[in-house]
Amino acid sequence: MNRKFRENLLTNVDLFILIVEVLDTEFYDSLIRAASTIDPSSESSQVKKMLANIRFSNLFRGSYVSDTLLLKDLSLILKSIYTIVNNIYYLNIITFILTSICSYKGLNSQVIQLFFRKYRFYFRIKMRESIVGQDLYSSDNCLNQIAIVYLYLLYISIKKKNIYCFIDMNFKFSFLSFFSIYS
């Protein structure tokens, strides 16, 4: 895997994890359980290490480390994420948020404002301002748009009920291009 492609893919996976964490604070624990269920030979400590490798392979993170991540580990994490989010609970939450965002009244909704506030908080805590760029990092509007994009991509993959669509979006969507728009 070439370096640019790898960085883009791992950034996307990390941001999908981030958006689902905003929707469900128990997601991280569920992800560890799901990965252990999909691959019984994976212990929770191994799954936590895989997640840490993904998180710290995102060059926008505060503690970026260019470490190797095996394709089978990445595949296990993607399958686990998809297994968890591919249910009616997440579909209902995401549909409600996206529908509310599309209506003018919905943008002023406390639920939507809480979702955006929580996303911006998580993003700013976990990403490095010096790499992301001060303009994007400090712009609530830009971070709200990133949240909407990832929420919509998650919605599409759940609606299609196809893990390959989810994986394909991770491969093709470029978060890095989002930065060039605002740079």
Task: Kindly give the count of domains.
Answer: 1
Estimated structural class: mainly alpha
Strand content: under 5%
Q: Give the number of DSSP strands.
A: 0
Give helix % range: over 70%
- The ordered string of helix (H) and strand (E) elements is HHHHHHHHHHHH
N- to C-terminal separation? Answer: 27 Å
Mean pLDDT: 79
Note poorly predicted spans: none
User: Total number of helical segments?
Assistant: 12
Largest sheet: none
Gyration radius, in Å: 16 Å
The best one-word shape is: globular
Which helices and strands appear, and what pairs or packs with what?
Layout (H helix, E strand, L loop, with lengths): L2 H21 L3 H12 L5 H13 L14 H15 L2 H15 L1 H4 L2 H17 L2 H4 L1 H5 L1 H21 L2 H10 L2 H8 L1
Helix pairs in contact: 1-7, 1-10, 2-4, 5-10, 7-10, 10-11
Question: What brief labels describe this structure?
Answer:
183 residues; mainly alpha; 12 helices; 79% helix; globular
Q: What does this protein structure show overall?
A:
By secondary structure, the chain is an all-alpha fold. Helices cover 79% and strands 0% of the residues. The chain contains twelve helices and no strands. Helix 2 packs across helix 4, helix 5 crosses helix 10 (140-160) and helix 7 packs across helix 10 (140-160). The radius of gyration is 16 Å and the shape is globular. The mean pLDDT is 79.
